[in-house]
Structures are given as C-alpha cells and as structure tokens.
Amino acid sequence: MKILVTGGLGFIGSHTVVELQNEGFDVVVIDNLSNSSEEVLKGIVTITGKMPLFEQLDLREKKSVEDFFKRHNDINGVIHFAASKAVGESVGNPLLYYENNIASLIFLLQELSKQDKANFIFSSSCTVYGQAEEMPITEDAPVQQPMSPYGNTKKIGEEIINDVAKATNINAILLRYFNPIGSHPSAEIGELPIGVPQNLVPFITQTGFGLREELAVFGDDYPTPDGTCIRDYIHVVDLAKAHVIALQRLLNKKNTEKVETFNLGTGTGSSVLEVIRSFEKVSGKKLPYKIVPRREGDITEAYANTDKANNILGWKAQSSLDEAMESAWKWEQKIRS
Ligand code: UFG
Q1: What are phi and psi of 121, to 5 degrees?
Q2: Contact 143, 128 (CB under 8 A)
Q3: For the CA atoms of the chain, what is the radius of gyration?
Q4: Does the Cβ of 124 fall within 6 Å of ligand 1?
Q5: Stretch 238-255: mean pLDDT, rounded?
Q6: I need a surface site. Which of 38, 52, 179, 229 has the fewest CB within 10 A?
C-alpha cells in the first residue's frame, strides 16, 4: 500500500511517517520545506530503517500537483498535513493562510476526485469548537466562528471536504487534534519551531534549557481551579498512531459515512501550571515563570471527549502528560547538544 503524506517532514507529519513505515506501508512524502528540513529524513531512517520517497513540492502549484499524480498513479491513501499553523501570523497575513491551507487542499482534492476511489485523512483542530459550552467536548459540539484565519482554514477545509466527498469517490476522516506535544522517544525526530515558540511546551523546554529567560504565563484569572487555562495535551506519537488507524479504517472500508470526524485528545485537561509542574518533575529543573495578562484569543478550557475515537476508531491515547513532557525535554537537550 502506497500512502502519500503531505507535509510529511513537519512535526506531526514526520511522526506519522514513522508509524506508517512501522506498519509496513510504503510512504511518499511531499513537503515544500517552508517550515521543515530534509534532515528530518535522517531521523525517520534511523528509527524505521527505511527511507521514504521524498519530493520537494509546493501544493499551491496546481501543475506540480497534477504532474505528481501522473507520476504516482498508484496511491492508496493520502494523509494531508501540509499547512501553515501559527495562529498569530494568520491574523497578520490571512491571505497567506487561505492560499497555503485552502488552495493546496483544493488542488489535492481535484486530483483525488479523478480517481475511482480515494482515501483522505485531514488534519483538523479542536479550534473549530471555539470555547465550547460543555466539557469534555464531543464531536457533536457546535462548530463556531473561528477566532483566527488559521482556525477558519480548518473550518472551511472541513466544509470543502464534506461537499467534495458527497459529489465524488473520496472517503475522508477529519481528525480534530487537541494540543499535540512531545517527540519520538528516540529523540531522532521532534518539534522544530522557528524563532520564538508560540506554543507552551517548546517555550517551556527552551526556557528550561536556558535559551529563554522565563516563561510568560498568559493569565491566572481564568475561571479554572488554579486560574490558568486548561488544554488537552496529547503525545504526538499517540496522535501519529491514530492517523494510521484512521487510514486503515478507510482502506478496509470500515467507515460508515463518507466523511467521519474524530476528536484526538487524551480526555484529560491540564492547566498551564500543571504543565510547568510536569516539566519540573521530569527535568528536575525549576522553571522560571511569571504571570502576565491574558493572551488575546485564548479560550478558557478545551479537552476532548474521546469516546468516539475509543469506541469507533478503536484508538486511545497511551502516554501521560509526564511521558510526553519527558520526550519533549529529551528532544530539546538532543537538538541543543
Ligand atoms: N501559554 C502561556 N505562555 C506561552 C504560550 C502558551 O501561558 O508562552 C498558554 C496559553 O495561554 C494556553 C496554553 O498555554 O493557555 C496553550 O497554548 P498553546 O499556544 O500551546 O496552544 P493553544 O491551545 O493556544 O493552541 C493550540 C494550537 C493551535 C490550535 C489551538 C486550538 O497551537 O494550532 O490549539 O485550540 F488552533
């Protein structure tokens, strides 16, 4: 079985390539290297003993996408990660996000819609729920107007896939991630944020390593037990495994609808202060931090109801917050050494 992974050298993409190869799939990676590096291939080979086929390609170039599918007319499934993901950047440059995340999705779906049967896994986000009224969040929670162009690209992406699947031979699974963190336990691949990390965990590990002076905790006056925001932090390896299971579901024609949606989280919410404590526990280091005002656009809490993924997909997150933090810390030390 030959699987195309777009954005396969990125954070979640690279971990998914590893899990696919571990399960015996032949993987073709396309990536435009805008937020990743070919070095990641070395890590993938070290872990799996196998080099995926790699093509540097930009999905915004329609002709290149067409040519790619002419060269590879035997692809059994596509896992689509390639997208921009910085919430703040998307507010300043919305067109970049609509072009990167929507135009490329359309070109990909245009090619897949020419096939007799196509299987498509889409990287979506819990951001589509906004601040949900009820915790934990089920897949039936209403989708809300996103707070950022980035979030909107995920909402629109889901809508496009729903419409296209109805009219074509494409079957799809939308995976709504909560907060992916950590790295492969081997520390051969991991998250590589460019510049100052916007996300909590890479900021913590960089601060722990001494690259940043202190962590700014965005607000301690939220209506939560310790006043800081609550999220559902999921180990990226657990997340990667869910993609393989979702793909197998489509390949084995086990899906009951043309488009199915699953939350991918642990089901447990952790506050920012709990994440800091977890880091301190696994690293044995004291993390310098200060409380600063709230960050605009942050929601109070989001954690997943995982019943649907557990019962229908047959997948459950295995790693604890501590294990995920430990892997993130190991990776940070490795890339700085
Ligand atoms: N936080 C800090 N200090 C920091 C960074 C983050 O206190 O320096 C806090 C945030 O306020 C938030 C929590 O840590 O409470 C997590 O923040 P992240 O930026 O790591 O993650 P978000 O939940 O804000 O965003 C993530 C993804 C987005 C996605 C969103 C959906 O990064 O892509 O979840 O809710 F859109």
Answers
A1: -110, 130
A2: yes
A3: 19
A4: no
A5: 98
A6: 38
Cite the beta strand spans of 188-287 per DSSP E: 215-218, 230-231, 233-235, 259-264, 270-271
Query: Ligand 1 centre from 127 Cα, in Å?
Result: 11
CA–CA separation, 246 and 12 (whole Å): 15
Q: What is the position in ligand 1's atom list of the atom closest to the CA of 228?
A: 15
- Closest C-alpha residue for ligand 1 atom 2: 217
Catalytic center residues: 150
Burial class for 326, CB neighbours closer than 10 Å (0-12, 13-18, 19+): buried
User: Tens of pLDDT along 39-94?
Assistant: 999 999 999 999 999 999 999 999 999 999 999 999 999 999 999 999 999 999 99
Measured in Å, residue 220 CA sits from the centre of ligand 1 at 14
Angle (deg, nearest 10), helices 149-167 and 104-112: 10
Nearest alpha-carbon partner for 287 in 277, 301, 300, 297: 277
Domains of the chain, CATH where assigned: 2-180+235-264 (3.40.50.720), 200-230+267-305+318-336 (3.90.25.10)
Indicate which residue's Cα is closest to atom 14 of ligand 1.
200
pTM beyond cutoff 0.85: yes
CB contact at 8 A, 220 and 226: yes
Residue nearest to atom 24 of ligand 1 (CA): 298
Q: 123: Cβ below 6 Å to ligand 1?
A: no
